[in-house]
Specification:
Number of strands: 14
Bound molecules: phosphoenolpyruvate, magnesium ion
Shape: globular
Mean pLDDT: 89
Radius of gyration: 25 Å
Helix content: 40-55%
Largest sheet: 8 strands, parallel
Low-confidence stretches: 138-148
Amino acid sequence: EGIVLGRVCLFNENRHSNLPIYKVEGSGVEKEHRRVDRALKVTTERLEEIRADVEKTLGKAESEIFNAQKMILADQSVVKKIHDLIDRENVNAETAISRAFDYFENAIRKLSQEHFKERASDIAELKGRLLDFLGNMKPSLQCAGLEHCQKGKHRIVVADELTPSMTVELDISDVKGFVTEKGGKNSHGAILARSLGVPAVSGLSGLREIIGCGTELIVDGYKGEVIVWPSEDRKKNVQDILLRKKKHKHTEMVAPIEGFSVMANINSFADVAEALEMQAEGIGLYRTEMDLIANSRLLSEDELYEKYTAVLKAMEGEIVFFRLFDIGSDKVLPFLEIQKEQNPALGWRGLRLLLGKKDLFATQARALARASVNSPVWVLYPMVVDLEQFLAARRFFMEQIADLKIGEIKHGVLFEVPSACLAADELMKYADFASIGTNDLIQYMFAVDRDNELVAYDYHVERPVFWELMANLVQVAKHRGKMISVCGEMAGDVEQIGKLYDIGIRRVSVSARRIPEIRRIGAKKIKGGK
Ligand code: PEP
Ligand code: MG
């Protein structure tokens, strides 16, 4: 929700995700070297043209960035790395450029100074330019080449869709809004927008045909409307709304209240600070797979242990639900070689994937178990289908940690699949706790893709059967004496939170920014208000 006026940044979709990858030998090696040299030369010339153009139109200072980019392309450590990759690993020019630039980009992103981080976007942009040249692709998606690509900063990001891996690639620190052609209210792009507290509209297919980088837009997340090149009147109207909102802004923090717990959803340790600021009563969903997506690789047991320990330490004894890696379907890890599936939402994902990739599961289990020494660890099993599967997974978890010194570990079911909800009684007999992942539950219960804008109108909970199922879960948890919470997006929705309270939900987990508002409504409910 919210409204914003701003300029478009066309977020670079997947145009480089299907790069030609091939091995080269003999004279082919020389050819790839030549292709690299040519790409570097032509791109440098193009940058000089842009620099001169910008200097004329915007000024010398603004044009300096292109000099800096030219220097990167001339940097011998960069050039050498690309050529070395071709020689040593017999890869083609596209692969060598991608890998070399990714290497430098990642290295620079790890530096703490903002100044260096900005250089990381330059490196990514240069990689895009080189790959565009090699693939003879139109560079039109790159901020028209006239303005420095800001990867979304101070802009309204417009994209085909925003997948979890794209959202970690994007510099989200200062995005003003999101618009996507694909996706619905509970797609990961929307979840991200909500956690950032910026307006978003999804499902506007064809939008990118009528806008370009720099187009002015109003994004009205209240109405689900986008206005392209708004009139002065409309713009004034938005400014008035924003001014009014600023005046009536509630004081941000709302302290915890007795009888209704509001926890935070996080993607990584970096999100803990905001959770603490909002006085979250624990972490009700740590999407641990996001750490892998953000690093573009699997992490070692030690690396995971350190991350988990850091979160537990920062949360100072509050509950933390670590959801086991939920990989597959919408949460793709491009570096994990997984066979292409016709129906990934019903395929190798969640617990099924973990049980099939035992090394991955074992590594995470051991890291969690080691972290439990200092503070209790609550492990949430994703996409549980039935009791047998849950018990098999828990057994495997315990076998893998048998030799370790451990503290308290609890095992919980994430209810996202209708079959598990129907078997709730027996599942909750064995599980230590439960959470309800309504994003997927709605998808599977009503056979409605959460990421498909064509069916978004049908993705809703205004159906009695949904509430019957939910109320039953609450009753079963009560009967079995187990803690239950809701961590899907509806828990942070002001339209739904009252109904969740009415069926007996007393614990929810939402993105940190939603905490004050949800607590305020919870407090009203406790007092008997509507
Ligand atoms: C859910 O499905 O409701 C959930 C919390 O998990 P995710 O949105 O990560 O699939
Ligand atoms: Mg889910």
